[in-house]
Amino acid sequence: MRDVEDLLKLLDGLFEPGADRWSAAAADWWDDFYADRDRPVPFFADKPDENLAGWLDLGWIRPGRALDIGGGPGRNAVFLAGCGFEVDAVDLSPAAVAWGRDRARAAGAGVRFLCADVFTADLTGPYDLVYDSGLFHHLPPHRRISYRELLRRVLAPGGHFGLTCFAAGAMGSTTPDAQLYKQGRLEGGLAFESGELVRAFAEYTLVTMRRMNAEPPESDRFGEEFLWTALFRNGGKTG
After folding, report:
1. Per the omega criterion (within 30 degrees of 0), is the bond before 217 cis?
2. Tens-place pLDDT, residues 160-178
3. What is the CA angle 62-68-71, rounded to 5?
4. What percentage of the chain has pLDDT greater than the value 90?
5. How far apart are CA 57 and CA 71, in angstroms?
């Protein structure tokens, strides 16, 4: 045991291999998940999160450099590029990245896709926006340390961090952290109370937090009520 990363890797190993959705070893699982692009999975739709589009409508975020982490087949990354952002998008799954590149080509969007573990990826920050739609709730508790270190490393001063994740009581597991290590499973993803998210990212200024709006199938935006949406700012109050 030489450093914190060695300790984090040891804790990774306390989970069953089939529970891993966060490390490079999980790429095959996600490849299988994304193999059939026609599966009726709500977030396979080629449309952005309604909260993300809404923040732009309100002027809370503005075009700049953006990093989409765990973005799957690129629906939010392509949207941001179309809104004038310079976008890097990172995902573990080669199948998801290939799909994202296809979408970007079809839309004429200049997204730089990276197939990598976001914690070890070669990222060229700082970024004005870091956006996560569905990665955080697949991390075991100890990897929240890695996640916060990533934000400290790549998020620009005054930049924004946006998040969607499972809401406690609506979707996901609320099993206590210690019990997760005893059972070696994450039960499909972890759910959070709003206060837990505020505490997890206490070094940032909370701009807004609410449940995602449910969007009808004909909407040009994605929305499911079982998710939290949150926007934080790196330093100071918003104008």
Report:
1. no
2. 999 999 999 999 999 999 9
3. 135
4. 95
5. 21
